[in-house]
Amino acid sequence: MKNLTILLCATVLLTSCSSSQNRNKSIKTGNPETYATTITASELKDMLYTYASDDFEGRKTGEPGQKKAVEFIKNHYVSAGITSPITEGDYFQEIPSSYFNKSGIEDSENVLAYIKGSEKPEEIIILSAHLDHIGVSRNGKINNGADDDGSGTVAIIEIAEAFKAAEKVGYGPKRSVLFLHVTGEEIGLFGSRYYATVDPIFPLKNTVVNLNIDMIGRVDPKHEESGKNYLYLIGSDKLSKELHNVSEEVNKTYFNMDFDYTYNDDNDPNRFYYRSDHYNFAKHNIPVIFYFNGTHADYHKPSDTPDKINYEFLETRTRLIFHTAWELANRDERLKLD
Fold first, then answer.
1. 13 pLDDT exceeds 70?
2. What is the mean pLDDT of residues 43-49?
3. For 266-292, what is each residue's pLDDT tens digit?
4. pTM given for the model
């Protein structure tokens, strides 16, 4: 019995060690699926219920609610150990009120965080979303902007944390990844224009691509009946067919989601290609993708609230964008312009 006990103990110990080694091996991997799973519906929901709450007063540019919003974003990056590319501890790119050229708009700020590339740090992948919304209606009702663009804001934070999880175990991106939260989108794409034309923290010639996220938490009427997850993609082939092909390949490999290119048509009367922050990068010949779920009955209304978000869809869409960013950050060659 004594020898049998010793044998059993040894077997348990070896099995435990082997299991532990396998777990560690699975964690320390260059496979992006490992880190994509850190992006969860529950975390997205927790963040969005705060970010799109009444406490943030609709996040109108320059107003107190928007100031709460930038602190919220900054604090998540500080907690995750993701640094600023500006100076240590300073995540805000200040934009003076005079730049907005609109009466009643106070000073505002973009929020920037980044992960430095391990092999090609001078080449930059930008993920962007606008942090502002339209504030309080005349009747006193708060426009919470859960989908527009709370969904994009929390998606970028989760993507950043996934990249950071990879970096912690030795698989940081080869290229630098900038997480850019811009202000003033709702009043004229001001924050992204300021970054692109006045104070690009990284030279635009070194910017490989901009992946812009603006409303990815809902389902529009066109896609309600099918029940399938989908995204509208806008701009992916306008400056780089290679970007379009990479995007399609990532989707087929990991998700096989429905990509809808309706609004990518040059003759689209909605002109969405010109109406979100990616356009200020496209104007400088930087390839872009604009991820969008389409409009819905709650667009720009107080009823755009976090309880109406499809969090399972939001999780999958965020993971898709993470995988696309991962591929673009880690591929051997920089994207080619047509």
1. no
2. 98
3. 999 999 999 999 999 999 999 999 999
4. 0.92
Domain of 261: which CATH number? Answer: 3.40.630.10
Whether 28 maps to a domain, the answer reads no
Task: Look up residue 108 and give its amino acid.
Answer: S
Q: What is the mean pLDDT of the chain?
A: 93
The angle subtended at Cα 21 by Cα 17 and Cα 24, nearest 5°, is: 140
Q: What is the mean pLDDT of residues 297-305?
A: 98
C-beta of residue 338 within 8 angstroms of C-beta of residue 244? no
Q: By C-alpha distance, which of 269, 325, 278 is closest to 123? A: 325
Query: Is the CB of residue 169 less than 8 Å from the CB of residue 32?
Result: no
Confidence of residue 15 (pLDDT cuts 50, 70, 90): very low
Is the Cα torsion angle 191, 193, 196, 199 positive or negative in sign? negative
Token digits of residue 312: 């399972």
Count of domains in the chain? 1
- Biggest CA pair distance of the chain: 88
Positive or negative torsion for Cα 150, 156, 159, 164:
negative
Contact, 287 vs 211, CB < 8 A? no
Residue 20 has pLDDT above 60, yes or no: no
Residue 268 and residue 106 in contact, taking contact as beta carbons nearer than 8 Å: no
Are the C-beta atoms of residues 257 and 231 closer than 8 Å to each other?
Answer: yes
Q: How far from the centroid of its chain's Cα atoms is residue 323's Cα?
A: 11
**Ordered alpha helix ranges (H), 179-310:** 190-193, 221-224, 241-254, 279-282
Domain range for 275 is 33-330
Residue 86 lies in a domain: yes
Angle between the N-to-C axes of helices 41-51 and 311-330, in degrees from 0 to 180, rounded to the nearest 10: 110
